Amino acid sequence: MGEYIKDINTLKKIVETERSKGKKIVFGNGCFDIIHAGHIRYLRAAKKLGDILIVAINDDESITKLGKRKKVVTPAMERAEILTAIGCVDYVITFNEPTVERLLLELKPDIHAKGTDYTEETVPEKDIVLSYGGKVAIVGDPKNHSTSDIIKTIHDLYRIE
Q1: Do residues 7 and 92 make contact, with C-beta atoms less than 8 angstroms apart?
Q2: Which DSSP string corresponds to the chain?
Q3: Cα separations (Å) of 26 from 2, 74, 88, 143, 147?
Q4: How do the domains of the chain map onto residue ranges?
Q5: How far apart are CA 2 and CA 88, in angstroms?
Q6: pLDDT, tens digit, for every residue of 54-96?
Q7: CA 129 to CA 35: how far, in whole Å?
Q8: CA atoms of 11 and 158, how far apart (whole Å)
Q9: pLDDT tens-digit profile of 28-62?
Q10: C-alpha distance from residue 95 to each of 19, 75, 102, 123, 155 (Å)
C-alpha cells in the first residue's frame, strides 16, 4: 500500500533514501478525478520502468484553473486515498501549479512517465527532465478512456427529459 506525503521536503528525503539504496525513481502525474482502467494501465506501465512510483495529483483548485471542468467529482484527499490503495503506487503528493516542473526539479526522478496523449516531444516538462539527466517515457494504453467521457455517459444515462 502506498503512502500520501503532505509536503515536498518529506518526499525529497524519501527519494534520497530510496536512491541511496540504488532504487530507480519513476514519477507520474495527473488529475485522476474518476479513476478508470486507462489510469490503472498507465500506473502499472509506469511502475514497470523502475522501483518506486511517485504520483503527483492536481489539487481541486488546479483542476478547475486548468479549465478541465468547473468542479471536481472526487476531492483531492479522496483521490490520494484511492491511489495509495493501488498496489503499484508507492507515494502520492498533491500539487497546485499548472505543471509539475517544480516537483521534478526538487525530486529529480530518473523517469518522468506520461500517458499516451503525449509524445516524448510534446511533454511540457521534457527540457527540465533532460536538464538533470532524467528520461521521459510514454506509457499506458491508447487514450480511449477519459473522466470526461465517463461524466458524459452518466449525464446521458440519467438526464431527465
Answers
A1: no
A2: --EE--SHHHHHHHHHHHHHTTPPEEEEEE--SS--HHHHHHHHHHHTTSSEEEEEEE-HHHHHHTTS-SS-SS-HHHHHHHHHTSTT--EEEEE-SSSSHHHHHHH--SEEEE-TTS-TTT-TTHHHHHHTT-EEEE-SS-S---HHHHHHHHHHHH---
A3: 14, 25, 11, 20, 24
A4: 3-158
A5: 8
A6: 999 999 998 888 776 678 889 999 999 999 999 999 999 999 9
A7: 26
A8: 42
A9: 999 998 898 999 999 999 999 999 999 999 999 98
A10: 22, 13, 9, 18, 29
Total count of residues recorded for the chain: 161
Q: Which amino acid is located at 101 in the chain?
A: E
Q: Which three cell numbers stand for residue 90?
A: 508507492
Q: Give this prediction's pTM.
A: 0.90
Q: State how far the alpha carbon of 129 is from the alpha carbons of 22, 112, 151, 160, in Å.
A: 19, 7, 33, 48
C-alpha cell at 30: 495527473
Residue 65 CA to residue 42 CA, distance in Å, equals 24
Type of residue at 50: G
State how far the Cα of 150 lies from the Cα of 62, in Å rounded to an integer. 20
Fold classification of 3-158 (topology level): Rossmann fold (3.40.50)
